[in-house]
Amino acid sequence: MTITDLVLILFIAALLAYALYDQFIMPRRNGPTLLSIAQLRRGRVDSVIFVGLVAILIYNNVTSHGAQMTTWLLSALALMGFYIFWIRTPRIIFKQRGFFFANVWIEYNRIKEMNLSEDGVLVMQLEQRRLLIRVRNIDDLEKIYKLLIENQ
Questions:
Q1: Which of 24, 67, 73, 100 has its C-alpha lying 20 to 30 A from 110's C-alpha?
Q2: What is the residue-level pLDDT of the chain in tens, covering all 152 positions?
Q3: pTM of the entire structure?
């Protein structure tokens, strides 16, 4: 096993750990889930570039008769990238004391101001940061509003 294979195994393990955390562990942290809303995906161009580059590496490894283990590891990396970027949907998960946005826990008392833009983006102003929440279904904004009013 080469250094390349070890690095690939490390990246695959990191992506798998992230996928398991995002799918199974995060919804169970900080109490029961009150509301889980699907968000719009941002820029798929990066994901196409990543999976395309890995596909080029697979092709290069196969044509140069590289190690079969490396080909399998590159294929697993491409599949993990495809899952993370294309199959998994980003979600905002609301709990009793706060919510998870982009895998970061934010308590409700950190919200200083909320606005709704004309194009249906909920803007939450925190102490030093602005969150732009783009939901897939525009009706979900009303659910978020009702939940925030109940918990404040």
A1: 24
A2: 789 899 999 999 999 999 999 999 988 988 898 889 988 887 778 888 988 999 999 999 999 998 899 999 999 999 998 888 888 888 999 998 889 998 899 898 888 888 888 888 888 888 889 988 888 888 888 888 888 888 76
A3: 0.79
Residues 78 and 8 in one domain: yes
Answer yes or no: are the C-beta atoms of 96 and 151 closer than 8 Å.
yes
Residue 65 CA: distances (Å) to CA of 2, 33, 68, 103, 111: 15, 50, 8, 40, 56
How far does CA 119 lie from the centroid of its chain?
Answer: 22
d(CA 91, CA 62): 38
Strands 104-107, 113-116: pairing is: unpaired
Q: Assess whether 81 and 95 both reside in one domain.
A: no
Q: What's the CA gap between 75 and 54, in Å, rounded? A: 8
Looking at the structure, tell me whether residues 7 and 70 fall in a common domain: yes
